[in-house]
Amino acid sequence: MFEILEYPPKKELLYIGLCYCQLSRIYNLDEIPISEIKNCLGKYLIDFDSYPWRDYLLELEFFYMREGENTFVKGAGLVVYTPSEEATVSIDPRYGFLKNSFCQKVYRYWYISQKWDRFRKPNDGWEVIENAVRLFNEGLYEEASLYLDDYLPYIKSSRELITYRVIKKLSTLAFLLDREKREEALEEIKSLKEFLKEFNKELSDLPFDFGKLSKELKKLGKSLKGGKKVYLPPIRLERKRKRSFWRRFLNFFRDLPIFR
Q1: Are 138 and 178 in contact (CB under 8 A)?
Q2: Does the model's pTM come out above 0.90?
Q3: Domain count, the chain
Q4: pLDDT in tens, 161-190
Q5: Is the CB of residue 54 less than 8 Å from the CB of residue 81?
Q6: For 75, what's the count of Cα atoms within 13 Å in the CB-facing half-sphere?
Q7: What angle do CA 24, 25, 29 make, to 5 degrees?
Q8: Domain membership of residue 73 as a residue range
Q9: I need a surface site. Which of 111, 113, 133, 221 has the fewest CB within 10 A?
Q10: C-alpha dihedral (34, 39, 42, 48), degrees to nearest 10
Q11: Does the residue 218 lie in any domain?
């Protein structure tokens, strides 16, 4: 995922997954003829003969190809395989239960790769945090958590570390809620509330709106215990309220030496 976003040429990996998922949904089939894959890639202006589809199928891991009734080609065999027009592409039956999840991620990654043209490898810890928040706000909770793990060495200052920890905990909680793992989510809520209490002052200085998080978590816990499906809201930048003209006017005089 991160390679696709950080290195635009890597986006080509998505095309074969995108074509497979689209055609599988349209025709309601698990096995898609290679000729249909070629036609689909052509719509994205990709020449199949120069497209490294073997490498990409290997990278996507659970794809295989079938030639005739009983010949199955997967893994390293794809490297030297030249398919006929009758060959088909499919997900290995052992991983068939992952098909819907896989396709949802392909669609989401495709959308994000188009939307985030300037998502690049971070230069510092704060860029890591900002990118993780973007992933979180797109509903990619597991990816946000993994992204933070991958770039943990970039986190240097205590401010960055506290922000890293709270966003990591929020990502974990959101992932558990999304998977409806209620008991684990309740434990994570308890842990997060304790963390917020311990670092309340430090969190108030951050540019994110964490001020009402404790109350939201309390409400969330009650709903969860009541058996309701719940979600975490996006992480927002905090909007500082501007002081009125009269407040600034009075503060100006208050700061003069004569009033001290």
Answers
A1: no
A2: no
A3: 2
A4: 999 999 999 999 999 999 889 999 999 999
A5: yes
A6: 1
A7: 40
A8: 2-112
A9: 111
A10: 20
A11: yes
